[in-house]
Design goal:
2 copies of one chain form a homodimer.
Chain A: H1 3-6, H2 15-38, H3 45-57, H4 64-70, H5 78-87, E1 91-95, E2 103-107, H6 109-124, H7 134-147
Antiparallel strand pairs in A: 1-2
Helix pairs in contact in A: 3-5
Chain A binds a DNA duplex (30 and 30 nucleotides) through residues 35, 44-47, 63-65, 73, 75-81, 83-84, 99-103.
Chain lengths: 149, 149
DNA sequence: TGCAAATATATGTACATACATTTAATGTAC
DNA sequence: GTACATTAAATGTATGTACATATATTTGCA
């Protein structure tokens, strides 16, 4: 559906203004789609993203600062997201012996198993971005990188 | 900067997966840019969006349900955003006489004056989306609409 | 050595999101 | 016209974001 209909706005000041609104709206649309997919597993998107970073490091641990550096949203609060994952026993956290300021965060077997389930879900999800052709997807990536130049 | 470098991830599963992450990352980047622009005025993005909808209606009032319908994020809590705006005297709220379940929300002169200031700011902002050519912007809008098909 | 600066993480607070529940008013079926 | 369903908005709670501050540890340098 065209963005004008979605938010019931008849006209935008410019194509640029429309693209700005369209970006925010579509991203939030994609997030909602993804979070609904994950809801039955009791995991939120930020928690999922942290788990994925941890799997990328596994079996090495990650520190909280590494998580912040790699998270999509740099200003979010990695400590508290790890809190939630720890309660669900998807990660462990223990003080690093070399530098006792830092904390080693490790994904557990339970965490790895959960990610495996979610991978399948993700692979089977053919909505959203998958409406595009391969060429359109490449073009979208190029344009987005240019926006952040 | 390419998305791989931004989030320090060397490879994506597919161009589609990369586009998904790129969308969320770039939208959050744009939101941060916009919210920094507005910070000196003590207004958040959702509050700004509600004010804009109210200006679109002015001098007619809007109801809370109309705000929800037109907001970018449909599941957010319009009541509480209106609370914040009311405290700052940017909107007024009073029970509608015809249907006493609904509430008439109206933008004040102070609210209109604030929006006028922000418009100027917005017009002078030539970063982000404005890095694109007009053709790229049109193509971006087309692709985003297709994602939400 | 000793002490200030830097670093890593955690915590506090205001705001927003997501979703369930509550309250009040209205609509509708019988 | 009363009873039940529906609607509009507000409220409660858990999570997350944004940002400031606190605490502990390490580093660096006089």
């Amino acid at each position: 559906m065209k963005i004008e209909e979605e938010i019931k706005q008849s006209a935008f000041k410019s194509e640029y203004h429309k693209a700005f609104i369209n970006m925010l709206y579509t991203a939030s649309w994609l997030e909602l789609e993804q979070s609904n997919l994950f809801k039955p597993f009791g995991i939120t998107l930020p928690q999922y993203n942290v788990l994925r970073i941890l799997r990328g490091q596994h079996p090495k641990p990650a520190t909280v600062s590494m998580l912040i550096e790699r998270m999509l949203d740099k200003t979010s609060n990695a400590s508290r997201i790890v809190d939630k994952l720890e309660v669900k026993e998807l990660v462990t956290r223990k003080q690093c012996p070399n530098d006792r300021r830092t904390v080693d965060v490790l994904i557990t077997d339970k965490g790895l198993a959960l990610l495996k389930e979610l991978d399948v879900l993700d692979d089977n999800n053919k909505t959203g971005i998958h409406n595009l052709t391969e060429e359109e997807t490449i073009e979208l990536n190029r344009i987005l990188d240019k926006v952040r130049q």
